TrEMBL record:
It holds the Pfam family DUF1501. This is DUF1501 domain-containing protein. It comes from Blastopirellula sediminis. PROSITE patterns: TAT (PS51318).
């Protein structure tokens, strides 16, 4: 091809797409991690995924930030009350605790317990609405983390590492699956107050991946997306004209800077914001739901209105194609209960119990539960030993999470902790295993969903996780 025939207006990406049948573009995409086009719905590793993996399409992660007490919610341990007031038996290895207390007496559990549903799942009286959804849950009693404090725990539960800098699980899902919608974000984050989650935006960041895969934070209240509606006195035609002009300037500026993924992500975010003005107002308008549905989520009660609204909004978002929605309860580590666990957990449980049960029931009645994976848990659990006499310390060595929907085998428990709920002793699932399992339930082989970073093949599990087959129905 002579130089006279070269069109200098085409970008490098255009050239790679056209040259050699597009194989140059495939190599570029593999090396850079950037999509071949501005938006894609294809899974870049689809042909490498074994058929045995699940086929969930979306995730709703109910994150109880601060560390909910598995011993007072799902992991029934009668020995706690028998040994209450005594120190940990000599047969138990002494744990390293976040606050450094040693030989603290065991704290009794004051809950009333009930075996619920046909599965006989143990649930305490702090979560009475969960009794009705027990048979939808797969409860994992043997979760393990390396994060002994909140910063490390939240970071690892989200990104796989106790130190910042890696992509969050939601970013991996965005990278692996793409999005079926161009008018809503792929990954949305919500929190239940103005307080910031520990580590801030790093908890839903994209790390070394292109910035376009990071989560988009929706605000609390009736208007989760600011400036979504047109300014007063500005017509739709005027607004579209202004946005088109701004977009043309952005694209002109982008020419010659294609390697800058942050710049591309910023331009794409502006374009997404413009598209959201057309479709997002309907998606976030939960007031259009029937009174019966809003009551199911607890929106008619003060204690449950905030989390109920967010659970309902999460359902509306995945209904419209959003891949990953993360809902933080207790933003700012409010589930942390070093003292006064009775008042702290009692209040927080009342705020989330009905909305979560309503979410599961609503997904089920709409036929969405099969395609939507719901995850519940925090960054770690709590110790059987007391702290300050009325609370429990952090416990990353054995705690509970649950999953529902998304192809998960319902009505079962996986793993176990010891008789006091301190250490996981059966079927341990490290955070890496949890991430690998979530990826698998979404149809991705975690060993083959690879992002090349500085010449190194990076994976969600840092090459340490294992997909847990028993979780699949």
């Amino acid at each position: 091809m002579s130089c006279n025939n070269i069109d200098y207006q085409h970008s490098r990406r255009d050239f790679l797409l056209q040259a050699g049948g597009g194989f140059g573009a495939l190599a570029y995409a593999a090396l850079s991690g950037q999509p071949l086009a501005a938006a894609t719905t294809d899974n870049p590793v689809a042909k490498k995924i074994p058929n045995r993996f699940g086929r969930a399409k979306n995730v709703i992660w109910l994150f109880m930030e601060g560390g909910p007490s598995h011993l007072d919610l799902f992991d029934h341990k009668p020995l706690l009350n028998k040994l209450a007031g005594q120190t940990l038996p000599e047969s138990f290895p002494r744990p390293v605790t976040a606050m450094g207390e040693v030989n603290s007496p065991i704290l009794e559990c004051k809950r009333q317990w009930k075996q619920c549903g046909e599965s006989g799942l143990w649930v305490s009286d702090w979560l009475p609405h969960h009794h009705a959804i027990a048979d939808e849950l797969c409860v994992i009693h043997s979760c393990v983390s390396d994060g002994i404090n909140h910063a490390g725990g939240v970071c690892q539960m989200n990104t796989g590492a106790v130190f910042g800098g890696r992509p969050s699980l939601g970013a991996w899902v965005s990278y692996g699956l793409g999005t079926p919608t161009e008018s809503l974000p792929t990954f949305v984050v919500m929190k239940d107050s103005s307080a910031m989650v520990v580590n801030g935006a790093r908890a839903w960041g994209s790390g070394f991946m292109p910035s376009g895969h990071q989560g988009v934070l929706f605000e609390t209240g009736a208007e989760p997306v600011r400036n979504l509606n047109n300014p007063a006195g500005v017509t739709l035609t005027e607004q579209q004209g202004k946005l088109a002009f701004i977009n043309s300037l952005n694209r002109q500026h982008y020419v010659g800077r294609e390697s800058n993924s942050e710049l591309e992500a910023r331009i794409q975010s502006y374009e997404l914001a413009a598209r959201m003005q057309a479709d997002a107002p309907d998606a976030v308008d939960v007031d259009n739901e029937s009174e019966a549905i809003k009551k199911m989520y607890g929106m008619d009660e003060k204690e449950t209105e905030i989390y109920g609204r967010q659970c309902l909004l999460a359902r509306r978002l995945v209904e419209r194609g959003v891949r990953f929605v993360q809902l933080y309860s207790g933003a700012g580590s409010k589930w942390d209960s070093h003292s006064n666990i009775e008042s702290n957990h009692s209040r927080l449980c009342r705020g989330v119990d009905k909305p979560i049960a309503g979410l599961i029931a609503d997904l089920r009645q709409r036929g969405m539960l099969e395609d939507t994976l719901v995850i519940w848990g925090g960054e770690f659990g709590r110790t059987p030993m007391s702290e300050k006499g009325t609370g429990r310390d952090h416990n990353p060595t054995g705690f509970t999470m649950w999953m529902a929907g998304g192809g998960v085998k319902a009505g079962q428990t996986i793993g176990a902790t010891d008789d006091l709920g301190l250490y996981a002793v059966e079927d341990k699932l490290h955070v890496h295993d949890i991430h690998a399992t979530v990826m698998g339930l979404l149809g991705m082989d975690h060993t083959k969903t690879i992002y090349m970073h500085k010449g190194r093949p990076e994976r969600v599990d840092l090459n340490e996780g294992h997909y847990h087959d028993d979780i699949l129905s």
